[in-house]
Design brief:
By secondary structure, this protein is of the alpha/beta class. The chain is about 35% helix and about 25% strand. The chain has 3 domains: about 10-240, P-loop containing nucleotide triphosphate hydrolases (Rossmann fold, 3-Layer(aba) Sandwich); about 260-335 and about 420-435 and about 455-504, Rossmann fold; about 350-420, no CATH class. A 6-stranded mixed beta sheet has the order 6-9-10-3-11-12, with helices on both faces. A 6-stranded mixed beta sheet has the order 18-19-20-15-21-22, with helices on both faces. Strands 2-1-4-5 form a 4-stranded antiparallel beta sheet, with no helix packed on it.
Length: about 500
């Protein structure tokens, strides 16, 4: 690694961190320069989050030292880190749902008059911040009423509302569409022009190659290499990150797509929920992957919530040719539907519960004996089988799910639904916030499910993912189904033209 230069703002030297007998970081080193984007790349569990928490003052290093702007740097909490000139936007949201956008942005820094919070000044100041950043949110809206993408934008505004020498962005686009991400990218360019250093963490290789000036790869808690963006390829970075070459990011089909003569397992006609989506009609065959793509607010997730009985909607839904009325998730599950939600932390898992209980929670009735008592051996055997089948990395079935990496948590969500043997599996952002290695494993699982005859609805904000995995793509625009695209029309240009309303 090169020696620090005059424009180096942050130097990390021989940083190690252990938790009991587990070494999360080993002799880590990093030099971050002013006015540049320095991407930190590594699989889930590589040590990125631990290093960022050390920089934010959440953890203290076991060994090593850090300097910020030439001065020793050892904050003991995020507030102290911010006062010293470093601010971080964590991937996991730290917002209060019962407070407004403005109150969240200025939390602990509220303007006060005579010792009392001045709500008018707070709203005005927060509005100025939101306007300056170009974010499409109202400062007076309760955060609990916002979508996941909008909450992510508020988290970004909260972090960037403080002047900083170094800004850390941890997976900031994980729940943003392309249009929302463009807003963030413009903000990053402004930060660079002001001389602010940006440490960027992302698993999206395309945006890494677009934004980065410098890219550091870490693996198993250790420094691997630093490359300048213009001197390295995506394939080389993946090989450095996972320690192996990955010839195909999107695994090919193992069996042919269903023929036109095959009857659909799910048919939807004129599904409508006023104000959210209207006249949505599509079908999906056994073994087919039907992708859903659209910008944030296009109605994709809302449609899936309605199909799964989480929202009311008018229209006709048929499963295997039979009209069904699904007005609750219980009926959806009984009808053969499964739903991997985009928000695994709050809606897909109970993080404090064990791996075993999370895997079995939806299929508990299958493990009930004649008298209603749980057959614990059968439950455990099923969990063991799914852990093996999906290659879930966990110390034991009794490990709290929250202790696992994001990729392994997502596999547990998949395992939970696979136990129900769904005819139709809804996957809403199935690889959100997981690294490229875990993505590849999840893609293989999706391919295997399709090969076994499961019909899959794949909702994703990542256009390469939709194109790489789908047989057909339904493109949404402002609550309308613009088109269902297949064959030679499955191109980025064609999909984006429908998604932005340029083609109808």
């Amino acid at each position: 690694m090169n020696a620090p230069t005059a424009d180096t703002i942050l130097t990390i030297s021989d940083i190690s961190k252990t938790f009991g007998t587990v070494a999360a970081l080993k002799n880590m080193h990093l030099d971050v320069r002013r006015g540049r984007v320095h991407t930190l790349l590594g699989e889930n569990g590589a040590g990125k989050s631990t290093l960022m928490k050390i920089l934010a003052g959440v953890h203290q290093p076991t060994a090593g030292h850090i300097t910020l702007d030439g001065q020793p740097y050892h904050p003991t909490n995020p507030q102290q880190a911010a006062a010293l000139g470093l601010t971080i936007v964590f991937q996991e949201l730290s917002l209060c749902n019962n407070m407004t956008v403005g109150e969240n942005i200025l939390a602990t820094r509220e303007p006060a008059t005579a010792g009392f919070i001045n709500d008018r000044k707070l709203t005005r100041k927060a509005a100025d911040i939101v306007k300056a950043l170009g974010l499409p949110v109202s400062v007076e809206e309760k955060v609990g009423n916002l979508s996941i993408a909008q909450r992510q934008l508020v988290e970004i505004a909260k972090g960037l509302s403080v002047e900083a020498k170094v800004v850390i962005l941890d997976e900031p686009t994980s729940s943003l569409s392309d249009s929302e991400a463009e807003i963030l990218f413009q903000i990053i360019e402004c930060l660079k022009e002001r001389g602010t250093a940006v440490i960027y963490i992302s698993h999206r290789m395309e945006e890494i190659m677009r934004l980065s000036d410098d890219i550091t790869v870490i693996r198993d808690g250790e420094y691997v290499a630093t490359r300048q963006r213009e001197t390295v390829t995506i394939e080389e970075l993946i090989a450095l990150m996972v320690g192996r070459k990955m010839e195909e990011i999107y695994p090919p089909r193992t069996v042919a797509a269903p023929s036109p003569s095959v009857e659909p397992v799910l048919s939807v006609e004129k599904l409508t929920r006023p104000g959210e989506f209207a006249d949505i009609s599509f079908d999906v065959k056994p073994g087919e992957i039907l992708g859903f793509f659209g910008l944030i607010g296009s109605g994709r997730s809302e449609i899936m919530n309605a199909l799964f009985g989480m929202r009311t909607a008018q229209g006709t839904v048929r499963l295997n040719g039979r009209t069904v009325n699904i007005d609750s998730p219980v009926k959806a599950i009984a009808s053969g539907l499964g739903f991997v939600t985009e928000n695994r932390k709050e809606e897909g898992l109970v993080l404090s519960h064990s791996v075993e209980s999370n895997i079995s929670m939806v299929a508990l009735q299958d493990f009930a004996g004649r008298l209603g008592f749980l057959r614990r051996r059968a439950e455990r055997d099923a969990a063991v089988a799914e852990v093996s089948r999906l290659a879930i990395k966990t110390r034991s079935l009794d490990t709290p799910t929250g202790a696992l990496s994001g990729g392994n948590q997502q596999k547990i969500v998949l395992a939970k639904w696979l136990l129900t043997k769904p005819k139709v599996l809804i996957l809403d952002e199935p690889t959100r916030g997981v690294d490229v290695g875990a993505k590849f494993e999840i893609y293989k699982i999706i391919r295997q499910l399709a090969a076994e005859g499961t019909a899959i609805l794949l909702i994703s904000s990542e256009l390469p993912e939709v194109l790489g995995m789908s047989d057909r793509v339904a493109v949404m625009h402002e609550g309308d189904l613009g088109a269902i695209v297949a064959g030679t029309d499955l191109t980025p240009e064609k999909i984006m033209a429908f998604a932005t309303g340029l083609t109808s």
